[in-house]
Every structure is written in structure tokens, then in C-alpha cells.
Amino acid sequence: MKKERILLNIGAILGFIILLFIFNKTFDSYQMKILNLCGIYIVLGLSMNLINGFTGLFSLGHAGFMAVGAYTAGLLTMSPAMKEMNFFMKPIIPFLAKVEWPFLPALLMAGVVTAFVGFLIGSPVLKLKDDYLAIATLGFSEIIRVVFVNIQSVTNGALGLKGLPTHTNIWWSWGTAMITIVFMVFLMKSSYGRAFKAIREDEIAAEAMGISLFKHKVMSFTMGAFFAGVGGALLGNLLGTIDPNMFRFVLTFNILLIVVLGGIGSITGTTISAVIVTVAMEVLRVLDETINLGFVQIKGIPGMRMVIFSLLLMIVILFYQQGLLGTNEFSWDWFSKIKGFKKTPKKEVKQ
Questions:
Q1: Which of 79, 75, 47, 76 has the alpha carbon at shortest distance from 63?
Q2: Cα–Cα 20 to 30 A to 222, which of 48, 119, 128, 274?
Q3: From the CA atom positions of the chain, what is the Rg in Å?
């Protein structure tokens, strides 16, 4: 049975790769951008779910971590000529002026730098709990953004970075998303994953069983920051520009929305929710514009998209209070249940 599931998983991955090839050939640039955003938001949603969902830490600092990753990758991948054009008010520091890395090392460095920042923030902050932790991480996120606005010789201040090489494509975004999903699956099945869940359920009981609360909280926070930095780097190199105003606390709430809607503590739920939310936000954009039905014209109302989207979210949360999947995960057994197949229990042999 285990061998069959491995073959099914390999077949599903190969089928999805073929589907990406088809999308890459048939979708226009706008549709490809939405598809890329879906992959990026899967990475960001899973990184937050690791901290908030699986470990039970109420963190709201994701926007700050994304900013660190985006600026790190942006500065490492920009050409020296483009840096000179961007930093016309105040020259960039000499150390970064001539640096130009390939995208993969820059992406990994963005994650490492963000993980280090997450470790520095998490070490003192993770002694707090619940609302106090949320306020502290939200404060640090805003501090990071304000610092980036003011260190003009490194980040170009409020002007941001323009003309970034658009390395992010469907293979980078969805490849990173698939690697993140696989990493999360294996992590949750490991002893560390079980320790994270134990801390989420009851810290006192977990500590009594010999689990180091501080060690595992910092580990979870650092790994979540790493993937948030990678997601921020992918987003920056997809848009081709980085603005400090991109990383306000509203961005954190958008990612939190994906986690809550999919199910706090569900990898499958976060993956599905990231795609649904990203696509729905674009599909509902027609409500802000005038709709011509031929026999009648319906005048668009600016902001109606968010009103309808919020109503749909309220309906989902009312009927699915633990999210679309709760803490459930995808299993091939779902298909056997749909088809009506039931496993017959083995008869005991009397001796």
C-alpha cells in the first residue's frame, strides 16, 4: 500500500508539471502573473501556518520578513548600471555597488538573511504569549519597514528599487511552492513536527514531556521567516519593483486570511485557500467596472469587489469555523471513500 501511494504521488507531481507546461503555452501574461502569485502565496501561507497553525504562536510579522527577503534578493540580482540609475539621490554603499548574483543563490541568501533576522527577533519576543506576542511581532514588522525607508544608501529609501530583473516565472514560483509543501509534509511527520504540535496543544504538558519550549519555538519562527523571505524575494522579482509601502501590516493580514480560510494547521487547506483567494480577488475585479450585458449596463461601484469578497468569506467562516479543511490533510483514501469502497476488516483466525 505504501508503494502504491508513492507511485500515485510521483504520478500526481508529473501530471502537475505537464499541466504547468500547458499553462505556460496557453495563458497570456496577465493569467501567468496570477498563476505565479498563487504559487508565491502558497509559500507565504505555509510559512505563516508553520508558526501560527502548527506551533500555535500568534505572529503578525510576516510583512517585515517579506521586506527583508525582497530587498536582499533585489539588491543581489540588480545590475550595477541599474543600481547607479536607482541611487541618484544618495549613492549605494560600495559593498553592494558591483554585486550581481544569479537568481538561485540570491533567493537562498534572501531566505538565510531573513531567517537570521527572524532568529534575532524571535529570541527575546517568543517569551511572550498570545496577544502580546502578536503586538510585539507586528511592532517589529513596522520597525523593519521604517528602517528600510530611512537607510537610503542601502534600500534607496522611500523611492524603492526599480528595474529589478524579472526572474520569477511559473517554474520558480511553483517549483518553490512544491518544495515548500514537501518540506512541510516531512517536517510535520518528524519528531520536530510532533513537538511543534504538542506545544500548540498544551505548553505545560509538552514541557513536562521534556520538550524544550524555547528551542522549538525559535526553530519554528526561524524556519517560517526563511520561507517568508523566499516568498518576498519571489514577489519582488516578479513585479520588477520594490516599494516600502508594499510591506505594510495589511499584507500580513492577507496571508493570515489564507491560513484561517484554509484551516489553521492544514498544509492542504493553506494550498487550496491560497489559490482560491488569489484567483477570487482578480475574478471579482469586474465588479469595480461597468458591466455591459448587451440589453442593460450595470455601472461599477469602486470597492464593491472587496465588499462581495468579504461577504463570501463571512459565509464560509460561518459554516466552516475551522476553515475549509480544519486540520485535515489530503489523502488518497479520499477517492476510495468517494467511490464507496470500504476496507473489509481482516477476520481473526481462531487457533
A1: 47
A2: 274
A3: 22
Look at the block and give the residue holding cell 514541557.
207
What is the C-alpha to C-alpha distance for residues 42 and 130, in angstroms, rounded to an integer?
Answer: 25
- Whether the CB-CB separation of 141 and 249 falls below 8 Å is answered with yes
User: How confident is the model over 186-200, as a mean pLDDT?
Assistant: 91
How far is 236 from 38, CA to CA, in rounded Å?
14
Fill in the DSSP letter of residue 294.
Answer: S
- Which among 103, 31, 33 has a CA at the least distance from the CA of 72? 103
Q: Average pLDDT in the 220-225 region?
A: 94
Cα(233)–Cα(110) distance, rounded to whole angstroms?
7
Mean pLDDT confidence for 337-344: 52
* 144-182: burial string, b at 16+ Cβ within 10 Å, e else: bbeebbeebebbbbebbbeebeebbbbebbbebbbebbe
Q: Kindly give, in sequence order, each residue whose CB lies less than 8 Å from that of residue 298, ignoring residues fewer than 6 positions away.
A: 290, 291
Residue showing cell 481462531: 350
138 sits in which H/E element: helix 130-150
Q: What pLDDT band is residue 34 in, cutting at 50, 70 and 90?
A: very high
| DSSP secondary structure letters along 299-333 | ---TTHHHHHHHHHHHHHHHH-TT-SSTT----TH
**91 Cβ contact partners less than 8 Å away, ≥ 6 residues apart:** 97, 153
Give the DSSP H/E element, type plus range, for residue 241: strand 241-242
Domain segments of the chain: what residues? 23-253
Q: What is the mean pLDDT of residues 227-249?
A: 91
